[in-house]
């Protein structure tokens, strides 16, 4: 296994935040990046700018709120699939999978599900079921796999500053949390929580009510590692400085660092 830094970042409009993205890539130099919420069709995706920054890229663009991409530093990701198996009915660009630097990287943008109850929440749960089914195959793979992206799920009350104004939100519903737990029960390792069990880390701060300034955040961006990859996990964190830049996304990049050697078992 190579030493790798893998990150996931909901960019919230790649053309609107391109300067933020390029600044972060130059400063942190992640080896693999999963992007979500591109908000652009393929014809307007800034591939040349990303390639000029030293990254190969595969992407599935779409207008509105969707679109996903995988970047590889000094390498071209090899696309495996786009869209979830069995979900050919879904026209939204929410999933892309590629092999990058020896790791199978699954980049996802899970539906938000609001307002709930209603058709958008039903769609969220239906999409989640297809993810869980495909994830079982990836989890059992002998190849190292990371399932990374904006899951639009706050796994526990510890992953949010305060539940009071979010109790009716789709991100905190028992059904959403139960689906996320079923992923973990397959044997996936939640990297941030595994290394920071007692630290309240956030990856998203909405634009309202000065939530960034008061650190009133949520943890909804996750990197899940299968058993073939988890032993190489060295460190994990959130590049919160990106959220404090001018004209930022409401998310911050979330990352893991992989060692070239397996951790010793305790």
UniProtKB/TrEMBL annotation:
Residues carrying the site annotation Interaction with DNA substrate: 251
Lineage top rank: taxon: Bacteria
Catalytic residues, chain numbering: 109, 150, 251
Keywords: Hydrolase, Magnesium, Manganese, Metal-binding
Site (Transition state stabilizer): 152
SUPFAM superfamilies per the UniProt record, alphabetical: DNase I-like
Stretch forming the signal peptide: none
Cofactor(s) needed for function: Mg(2+); Mn(2+)
GO biological process, one term: DNA repair
Family as reported in the entry's similarity comment: Belongs to the DNA repair enzymes AP/ExoA family.
Protein's name according to its UniProt entry: Exodeoxyribonuclease III
């Amino acid at each position: 296994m190579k030493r790798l830094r893998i990150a996931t970042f909901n960019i919230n409009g790649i053309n609107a935040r391109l300067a933020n993205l390029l600044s972060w890539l130059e400063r942190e130099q992640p080896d693999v990046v999963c992007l979500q919420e591109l908000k652009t069709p393929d014809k307007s995706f800034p591939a040349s700018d990303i390639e000029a920054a030293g990254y190969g890229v595969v992407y599935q663009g779409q207008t509105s709120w969707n679109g996903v991409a995988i970047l590889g530093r000094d390498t071209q990701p090899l696309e495996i699939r786009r869209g979830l198996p069995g979900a050919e009915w879904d026209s939204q660009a929410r999933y892309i999978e590629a092999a990058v630097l020896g790791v199978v990287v699954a980049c996802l943008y899970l539906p938000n599900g609001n307002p709930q109850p209603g058709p958008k929440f039903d769609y969220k749960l239906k999409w989640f079921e297809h993810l869980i089914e495909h994830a079982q195959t990836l989890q059992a793979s002998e190849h190292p796999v990371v399932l990374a992206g904006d899951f639009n799920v706050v796994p526990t009350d510890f992953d949010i500053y305060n539940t009071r104004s979010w109790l009716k939100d789709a991100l905190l519903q028992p059904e959403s949390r139960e689906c996320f737990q079923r992923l973990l029960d397959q044997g996936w390792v939640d990297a941030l929580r595994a290394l920071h069990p007692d630290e309240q880390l956030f990856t998203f701060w909405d634009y309202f009510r000065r939530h960034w300034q008061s650190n009133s955040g949520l943890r909804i961006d996750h990197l899940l590692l299968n058993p073939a990859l988890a032993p190489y996990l060295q460190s994990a964190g959130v590049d919160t400085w990106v959220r404090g830049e001018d004209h930022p996304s409401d998310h911050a990049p979330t990352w893991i660092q992989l060692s070239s050697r397996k951790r010793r078992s305790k």
